[in-house]
Amino acid sequence: MAFRLDFASTYQFLGAACNGDLNLLKRLANELDMGDGLEETVASIKDLNGRTALHFAAVRGRAHVCRYLTEEAKLDVNVRDGKGETPLHYSISTDRYQTAVHLLEKGANPNAATDEGLTPLHFAAKSGPKKLLLLLILKGAKVDAKANSGTPLQWAASHGQKKAVEILLDKHADPNMVFDFVHSPLMASILASSFECVKLLLRAGADPNTCSRGKTPLEVAASNGETEIMRCLLNAGADPKVANNFGLTPVEVAAVGGHIEGVRTLLPITCPIPKVTDWSFDGIMKYVNSEKFERKSMLRKVEHLVLSLSKGHDAFNTKDYVNAIRWYTEAFDTAPSFLCNQTAVAEAASLTKRSLCWAHLNEGDLALTDAIASRMVLPSWPMARYAEGVAWNLLKDFKRAAESFFTGMQLDRENMQLNDLFRYHGEILQALDMPPII
Q: Is the pLDDT of residue 32 over 90?
């Protein structure tokens, strides 16, 4: 366009679309057209997050507005916002069935993926509306679409959406899908305390012994006191003899958690453990509450923590970022209390490295989360500010990136990398006609 819309005009136009005021929307479109034509005028009007009038109309289910925007204004039905979400994503997220039908009829891509790989089917699986799930699958949505955070089945399972899990499995979704950083559908349903989803997944062929992030389904069920789920897993063939990273079997895990019914269920089917002299309910409860057991458990946790951090650092140094994240995550997940007892520098360094690993994998949000956590642990740590700046840069927030690099530069004035990055982002801000940091 030959001009830049002011803030008020932009939001009045988008507000009309959101509120379903078609007459106002048409009038504003004509008023704002400075000779570029209706199509170009409407397409150019976006908010700061890249959302068009079609996004706003779709999220509120304004099908008549969507019809005008797609048929008369010829707005691209697959237009993406700043996160890569299309109007179809928006309509699915708020269960707007008729709007979704219209968008699909106008050519909306049922497999359009966001920047994080999420398709409309992921959104439908999370909220669970049967009609939308079946509509998307009928229109060609891939049931095993892979996003950074898993498949639609993993999303449905993690939110305990029984009906969505049932539909996806009926449409041949893989019940044993495993990702580097995402729980299997079975493990996700256990963590969501969804007995019904667990039953459906096991019936569909989910392996009850497949580890997810270093843990078996039975161990997690025992740890969480999910006795009903535990029995379901055992009936499906879960092995009660498999020990975890600390050498504990599921019955010991249940005993440590004080889950009486779990202990009573597992004890008769677990081979006696030599170190437990009295293999009975009272005997194992006494054992896990003994000073000897606590000392040994503490030692094993410390050893595992040191090993995990060492493997994480080695993987980071060899640029094996996936395994580095896995080991750092295991360290944080399995022994957080011990990390707190380490020096602040050690904890901040580990968080910073995991943040940079996420950044190398183009996971800006996760990189930022770890960078901020590192900064909070040790505000004077310049590399935390460096990681934070890298994350903001990945998220295309150049002003905040420059601020992070500037703060890091103030903490370490001899760090030429931080100096160069700050100057570089200052040039970007200047090119974008934004005020400098200083």
A: no
